[in-house]
Design a protein that fits this description.
Elements lengths: L3 E7 L5 H9 L16 E4 L4 E5 L11 H17 L4 E9 L3 H10 L5 H13 L4 E5 L6 H15 L11 E3 L8 H14 L12 E4 L3
Parallel strand pairs: 1-3, 1-4, 4-5, 5-6
Antiparallel strand pairs: 2-3, 2-7
Helix pairs in contact: 1-6
């Protein structure tokens, strides 16, 4: 049977696992340190629909550069190979550290990893992923707004209004904004033929093998 996927991507420590739990009810592992998810893990949530929890995309403390590069390659390869089978993609990023992270990367002449991954998913899957701008409870409102403006400007090439339908400010830990994102996610899945897919989550974990 052909498998279909809901994929979750994000940098290490973006709160991806907490977002998955709050949004879908799938009990993926949550750790106190970045890098809890080390492999591409699949969780069956209906007959042919699987939630895919990707490992963190980017630098993480204590990890060897070669290991990080291999992980990034696996993530990009999965997205490219399974593009036609990806029903919905959700990218999670830390809204509080976006500008700081972007400046560090810019000094090394790198594009923002969050923008790079959102655009890569859009190019391969043919649809812009939902974006969960996580950890809005962790910073000052003014700082969050500045980070959000910078992200929107970058991801839309200077047209922030274009992102109104797919960027959602949330706090996964406190479940702020989760309802709106879940409503859009369920709506999108319904359009693809999956009605209330999280009602009977099986939570059966399988490591992805290409």
């Amino acid at each position: 049977m052909l498998e279909r996927y809901i994929i979750f991507t994000g940098r290490p420590n973006a709160g991806k696992s907490t977002t998955i739990r709050a949004l879908t009810g799938v009990k993926v592992p949550i750790g106190k340190k970045p890098g809890t998810t080390k492999k591409i893990n699949k969780y069956q949530i209906s007959k042919d629909l699987y939630l895919v929890d990707m490992p963190g995309y980017g630098r993480k403390l204590g990890a060897h550069r070669n290991s990080e590069d291999r992980t990034k390659d696996k993530i990009l390869k999965f997205i490219e190979k399974e593009a036609d089978n990806i029903v919905v993609a959700i990218h999670v990023f830390n809204i509080n550290t976006f500008i700081e992270t972007e400046r560090r990367l810019a000094r090394k002449v790198f594009i923002s990893i969050d923008i790079e991954l959102v655009q890569y998913i859009a190019e391969n899957v043919g649809e812009v992923p939902f974006v969960a701008a996580n950890k809005i409870d962790k910073g000052k409102e003014q700082d969050i707004m500045e980070n959000m403006d910078a992200f929107l400007y970058g991801v839309t090439d200077g047209d922030p209004e274009a992102a109104v339908d797919y960027v959602f400010p949330i706090s996964a830990k406190k479940k702020v904004g989760i309802g709106q994102l879940k409503s859009r996610l369920v709506q999108k899945l319904g359009e693809k033929g999956y009605t209330n897919p999280f009602r009977d989550v099986r939570n059966r974990k399988m490591n992805y093998r290409d």
